[in-house]
Write a structure and sequence with these properties.
Length: 398
């Protein structure tokens, strides 16, 4: 029987031994076999990438992590899915598996801060050079390709500033030049965009965000095609990047309601944006909401939906009043991460300086005087209450 994605998410593997509706949490280091022959046979099965229910050693995962791998393989249309202990671990896994001394990587300038940091700081220790391109200029990307380019790393939409890129153009360029491609798809999730189906070699998601959905688990997902599978598996098995069974269980739990939650995040966000558009203190809303904009058209070209993360550009002569605005919000928590049930707000200083090593600077984004970016995650609360909270908070801005 063919199932829709919504139905599939509600019916992953059950615990047939204990008759539970949820899969078991299997914590294990040693995996036992009846005979040496059975162990050898199973190792060969894993090597040939056959369907399995367990590994030969706990470093590679357990029956619980395999269950999560299988769910995400289906969602991503992937050859294989690698799970990591944190979201960022998935980015590190891709870079460390595929890049070698003398290589270059081309990275979108609007990537997540730690992605920029590992690209330009850590990778250079291994003699891998990172070049950053303007996410709003395909020509700038093209101009930075060389014979040494090993990978193009894209985040779409961009972290905090939400630029959308023409993904097919990037894929076509990379295929012509035989360059690996990686897309950070945490915002869209494979529910709204399937990067591997589009032609990317790797699709990354921070499972900490919408996959988990409850702000109580951490993990990363790197979905890959057959072309890069062996290289990544080689490093994965040696590095011990695996996810724990407990985290995998919590993320499986979150995935059951992913479709339902994302619909509500999206509906709430539409209501919030309708309010924000009428506020004079807000210069710009960084989100695909304006049908006449380039970003909206590129979002519409590739995505089947939108989620609950956006930024607002606030015009103010006093940074302190913008901080007061964020501090005064009662329903928006102040904290990193997003994708949980609750609303969040944080002031993001993206100017090109080295004071904040976590955020890093931007080379191409144009910052006007007295403009500040506040990132909002719109949660699952009643949007009327969120609007009233924002309305009261905006009074603080001078």
């Amino acid at each position: 029987m063919k199932k829709s994605t919504s139905t599939f998410l509600k019916h992953p593997t059950k615990d047939n031994v204990n008759r539970s509706a949820n899969p078991p949490v299997t914590r294990a280091s040693t995996i036992l076999f009846k005979t040496m022959q059975e162990m050898y046979k199973h190792e060969l099965k894993i090597k040939k990438h056959k369907k399995i229910t367990h590994y030969t050693y706990g470093r590679y995962g357990s029956t619980t992590t395999i269950e999560l791998e299988n769910i995400l393989k289906e969602l991503e249309h992937a050859y294989h899915v690698f799970l990591t202990g944190t979201g960022f671990g998935g980015i590190a896994l891709a870079l460390m598996s595929l890049c070698r001394p003398g290589d270059e990587i081309i990275v979108s300038d609007n990537v997540y801060g730690p992605t920029k940091e590992i690209s330009q700081e850590l990778m250079k220790e291994f003699n891998v050079n990172a070049k950053f391109y303007n996410p709003e200029s395909f020509e700038d990307l093209k101009s930075k390709i060389s014979k040494k380019t090993k990978m193009i790393l894209v985040e779409n939409p961009g972290s905090n500033t939400f630029e959308f890129q023409d993904l097919s153009k990037i894929i076509q360029l990379a295929k012509r030049r035989k360059i690996f491609t990686l897309l950070d798809n945490t915002w869209g999730t494979p529910l709204y965009l399937k990067p591997l189906k589009l032609g990317f070699d790797m699709s990354f998601c921070s499972a900490t965000k919408y996959f988990s959905g409850h702000s109580d688990a951490m993990g990363g997902s790197l979905a890959v095609n057959k072309k890069v599978f062996k290289k990544i598996m080689f490093f994965y098995k040696l590095s011990g990047y695996r996810m724990s069974a407990d985290e995998a269980y919590l993320i499986i739990r979150g995935l059951r309601t992913l479709d339902t939650r994302l619909k509500q995040h999206s509906e709430n966000t539409k209501a919030i944006i309708a309010f924000l558009k009428r506020q004079k203190k807000i210069k710009e809303i960084l989100y695909p909401h304006n049908p006449s904009s380039k970003n909206y058209k590129l979002w519409k070209k590739y995505y089947s939906g939108a989620t609950g993360l956006l930024s607002i550009v606030i015009k103010s002569k006093k940074k302190s009043s913008v901080i007061q605005f964020v501090n005064s919000l009662e329903l928006f928590g102040i904290g990193y991460s997003w994708g949980g049930f609750e609303s969040l707000a944080i002031l993001q200083d993206l100017k090109n300086n080295k004071k904040d090593e976590y955020l890093k600077g931007r080379q191409f984004y144009r910052f006007n005087k007295d403009e500040f970016i506040v990132r909002l995650h719109i949660g699952l609360e009643d949007p009327k209450d969120l609007i009233n909270d924002l309305k009261n908070g905006l009074k603080k801005i001078k």
